[in-house]
Design goal:
Layout lengths: L7 H27 L5 H27 L2 H6 L2 H23 L4 H12 L5 H11 L15 H31 L12 H21 L10 H20 L2 H14 L1 H8 L4 H15 L1 H12 L13 H30 L8 H12 L5 H9 L3 H34 L3
Helix pairs in contact: 1-6, 1-13, 1-17, 2-7, 2-10, 2-12, 2-13, 4-5, 4-7, 4-14, 5-7, 5-14, 6-7, 6-13, 7-15, 14-15, 14-17, 15-17
């Protein structure tokens, strides 16, 4: 139970300590980029190293040690939470776009920033810091619960949320929301205009060549098309099996097989003192490196991008649609759910903290990559990340985590 002596000022101070840990490390990454220690190419390689090696090690070390079959069944509620937050964020992006009178491409951009929040670098580092800083985050349903377990559960909740968002981001986000439609060519780059015209010309030529009555022609080539589509679907599925997801699946398998879990993390034997310890050390590198790369990404690029005539509207709409409007709806829903529905992980204090953090997290850093690949509102994306991370993340995190602690106190049975 949270002590009444913890005033808002005290809780805010504890949250400030945890948030400043992440800020200081991120600033060091910004400085490294400023002095030339981390140029853009080096950032790319370090990010790949972190995603493919250190982060999977962190995932495995946290989950394989602390998961159980009972916990695995309980986390089924997280996909439902993802659907809820995505739906509300989508609606928020649409509403603010309509209010600002944006066109279709601009609306899609604001919606993408509203829907795809950061569920990896910033929330993970904050969750781990808060797990070891804030009081009374242990779960009374788990015997001998401790801060290590709290941090592990928080990472688990975030990872499941992040993997679902990752798949949606690189499918719907990349191919639909953050790609030019061609309806408003006044703000399209010249290369995009030329590509669009060529594609349209090709479609028209294909239609003219078809002629006749327009009935589909059935031939043996249809089987080739079916096979190619099957292969394409298979490779798309395979592309989603990234190292963090694979690590999570292996960790779940280890946790489900009690003898293996015991040999790795309970018995003081060969596997525990070699393999498990090595994975733990690799995983300990992940969070600091995530923040270093985050800070370096925020350093202004030497490449300059042209701003569109709606630049300020897009930046304002994206920030409001991502960090403000959804929280007005989601935070009360989460609070009421925790108070009146005693189901599964909803009673876990760290789940509430994670839910609050995800609701107000800035737009995902990966959206920068997508805008660069599609040449889509790149100047606007850079400004959005500056405001979201450099300006708003600190005060918003302090407010929302303090609110989460007070919600936990309010939700406790009398």
């Amino acid at each position: 139970m949270i002590a009444e002596s913890f005033t808002f000022a005290h809780i805010a101070y504890l949250v400030l300590e945890a948030v400043l840990q992440t800020v200081i490390i991120a600033v060091s990454g910004f400085w490294a980029s400023h002095v030339g220690l981390l140029p853009k190419q080096a950032q790319k390689y370090i990010s790949l190293l972190n995603v493919d090696l250190f982060t999977p090690a962190l995932i495995f070390s946290k989950l394989a040690r602390n998961l159980s079959m009972a916990k695995i069944l309980e986390i089924a509620i997280i996909p439902l939470f993802f659907v809820l937050t995505t739906g509300i964020s989508f609606t928020s992006g649409k509403l603010i776009s309509k209010f600002l009178e944006l066109d279709k491409d601009e609306t899609n951009f604001v919606v993408a920033n509203s829907v795809f929040g950061n569920s990896n670098s910033l929330p993970v580092s904050l969750t781990v810091s808060l797990a070891y800083t804030l009081p009374n985050l242990t779960w009374d349903q788990i015997p001998n619960d401790n801060r290590d377990n709290v941090a592990s559960r928080g990472i688990l909740y975030l990872l499941i949320f992040q993997q679902i968002g990752q798949m949606l981001r690189w499918s719907w986000g990349y191919n639909k929301l953050m790609r030019w439609t061609g309806e408003n060519q006044h703000h399209m780059p010249p290369s995009q205009i030329q590509a669009h015209l060529e594609a349209r010309r090709g479609l028209e030529e294909s239609a003219n060549m078809g002629g006749g009555s327009g009935d589909p022609v059935i031939s043996s080539s249809m089987w080739v098309k079916v096979c190619n589509r099957f292969k394409s679907a298979f490779f798309k599925f395979k592309s989603h099996l990234n190292p963090p997801l694979c690590s999570m699946l292996i960790a779940v398998l280890v946790a489900a097989i009690t003898p293996i879990q015991h040999e790795l993390y309970s018995a003081d034997g060969f596997l525990n003192n070699t393999l498990a310890e090595a994975i733990d050390q690799l995983g300990s590198v992940s969070i600091p490196l995530i923040l270093i790369v985050l800070g370096s990404n925020l350093y202004p690029s030497e490449e300059t991008f042209n701003k569109t005539h709606s630049h300020k509207k897009l930046v304002f709409g994206s920030i409001v649609g991502r960090m403000i409007l959804p929280s007005c709806v989601l935070l009360p829903i989460i609070a009421m759910t925790v108070k009146y529905i005693n189901v599964s992980i909803l009673d876990d204090p760290i789940f509430l903290v994670v839910g609050f953090l995800l609701t107000v997290s800035p737009p995902a850093i990966q959206l920068t990559q997508i805008t660069q690949l599609n040449e889509f509102f790149e100047a606007e994306m850079a400004n959005i990340l500056f405001w979201g991370y450099a300006v708003l993340s600190l005060p918003v995190s302090i407010l929302v985590v303090s609110a989460a602690i007070y919600t936990l106190q309010w939700a406790e049975p009398e």
